[in-house]
């Protein structure tokens, strides 16, 4: 089997497209949070119970798959970086946006949720560190994903040198040959389920708080490592592509079983265990299905891919506070639920894209704050003092190494 080495230049447009689609799914998911029956920052006066099942299904696999995709990009972008260089890059591309977001983006969401308690957004800021959300005001909300990626970077950084060794390369090659066999990628279900058997009793809730979220964090870590070590290999993705129909069936059947569990088991503890195991299988099966189908149908380049691949990180950082602000005003209108959803979706998307394109993209200071590289200087940019658009390689995404 042809072995990929770190920073090997290869077509991986399928991974870029998958990442773009996943972030768009996160955007739509948070639109849905306004109208489903779960608690959130703002809620419409009329809720749609039918959204529950769809959002439960989406909840279990979108972000684990995004961790897997981040692992793929990390391997392809490692190059000759040392552990120190890797952490320095991760600090700039992840930790700085995380800290900036806590002060710039998250307070907007908390203020809107508690708008009756404060006279203005400025009046809220002196109170942002009073207690921990939801009772208090301090939180990192959707930035948890960025924090978890940075924590994973700290965990794997001591092993980067060994990962580039001949011994590890040969081990990885043998593993890839083995898991390329029909449905053999399902072996990853073993560590996924084991982490939950061991940690879920101690950390039953998915909190996104890190310090008490080790069951969920370990699940994301296994997905990341699977992407880093295995799925980053193009030949393996080709193998998954050929098996995509089987993984699709493996998605459908456990999903049907998962939603039938309340009717199949009378014992609540047994039902809970069965649900947890089925959810893990669904998450992994969806991931393999998505990898296979994007490899088959979206492994192609375009100008839009280049633009979207750079924009998607600032889009993620901006989308939730924008949705909360827009939604806060729209849900007060006396119009049908569907019209509210369409207006919130359209306005939020337009605002996020506009802010990125006209405010963040041209200004290097803001590019750094939102996790992008500085735009290279050109004669024109030196004359007018603005940054120019750049074409970002597939492996040079902020959530990878960059």
Topology at a glance:
Elements: H1 13-32, H2 51-77, H3 83-104, H4 106-113, H5 121-124, H6 144-156, H7 160-163, H8 166-179, H9 189-199, H10 214-231, H11 234-242, H12 244-264, H13 268-297, H14 303-330, H15 337-360, H16 364-369, H17 379-384
Helix pairs in contact: 1-2, 1-13, 1-14, 2-10, 2-13, 3-6, 4-14, 9-10, 9-13, 11-13, 12-13, 14-15
Detailed description of the structure:
By secondary structure, this protein is mostly helical. The protein has a domain of 276 residues. Helices cover 66% and strands 0% of the residues. The chain has 17 helices and no strands. Helix 4 runs parallel beside helix 14 and helix 12 runs antiparallel to helix 13. It is globular, with a radius of gyration of 22 Å. 37% of the residues are buried.
Keywords summarizing the entry:
single chain, disordered N terminus, mainly alpha, 402 residues
Tally of DSSP β-strands: 0
Radius of gyration, in Å, reads 22 Å
Return the structural class: mainly alpha
* Largest sheet composition: none
Alpha-carbon distance between the two ends: 28 Å
DSSP helix fraction:
55-70%
Quick synopsis:
The protein is an all-alpha fold and 402 residues long.
């Amino acid at each position: 089997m042809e072995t990929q080495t770190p920073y090997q230049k290869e077509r991986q447009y399928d991974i870029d497209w998958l990442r773009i689609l996943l972030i768009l799914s996160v955007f739509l998911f948070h639109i849905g949070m306004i109208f489903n029956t779960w608690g959130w920052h703002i809620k419409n006066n009329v809720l749609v119970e039918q959204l529950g099942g769809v959002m439960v299904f989406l909840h279990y696999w979108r972000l684990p798959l995004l961790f897997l995709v981040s692992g793929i990009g990390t391997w392809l972008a490692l190059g000759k970086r040392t552990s120190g260089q890797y952490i320095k890059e991760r600090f700039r591309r992840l930790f700085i946006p995380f800290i900036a977001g806590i002060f710039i983006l998250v307070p907007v969401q908390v203020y809107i949720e508690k708008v009756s308690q404060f006279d203005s957004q400025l009046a809220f800021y002196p109170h942002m560190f009073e207690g921990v959300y939801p009772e208090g005001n301090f939180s990192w909300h959707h930035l948890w994903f960025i924090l978890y990626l940075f924590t994973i970077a700290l965990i794997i950084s001591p092993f980067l040198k060994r990962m580039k060794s001949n011994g590890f390369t040969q081990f990885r090659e043998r593993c890839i040959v083995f898991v390329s066999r029909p449905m053999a990628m399902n072996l990853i279900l073993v560590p996924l389920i084991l982490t939950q058997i061991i940690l879920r009793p101690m950390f039953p809730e998915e909190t996104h708080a890190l310090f008490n979220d080790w069951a969920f964090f370990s699940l994301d870590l296994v997905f990341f490592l699977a992407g880093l070590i295995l799925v980053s290999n193009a030949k393996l993705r080709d193998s998954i592509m050929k098996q995509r129909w089987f993984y699709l069936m493996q998605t459908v059947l456990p999903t049907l079983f998962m939603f039938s569990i309340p009717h199949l088991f009378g014992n609540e503890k047994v039902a809970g265990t069965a649900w947890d195991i089925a959810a893990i299988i669904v998450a992994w099966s969806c991931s393999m299905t998505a990898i296979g189908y994007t490899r088959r149908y979206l492994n192609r380049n375009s100008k839009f891919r280049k633009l979207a691949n750079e924009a998607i990180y600032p889009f993620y950082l901006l989308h939730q506070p924008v949705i909360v602000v827009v939604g806060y005003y729209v849900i007060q209108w006396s119009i049908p639920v569907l019209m509210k959803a369409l207006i919130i979706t359209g306005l939020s998307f337009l605002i996020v894209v506009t802010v990125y394109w006209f405010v963040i993209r041209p200004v290097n200071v803001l590019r750094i704050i939102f996790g992008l590289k500085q735009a290279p200087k050109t004669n024109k940019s030196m004359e007018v003092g603005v940054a120019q658009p750049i074409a970002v390689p597939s492996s040079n995404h902020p959530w990878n190494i960059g």
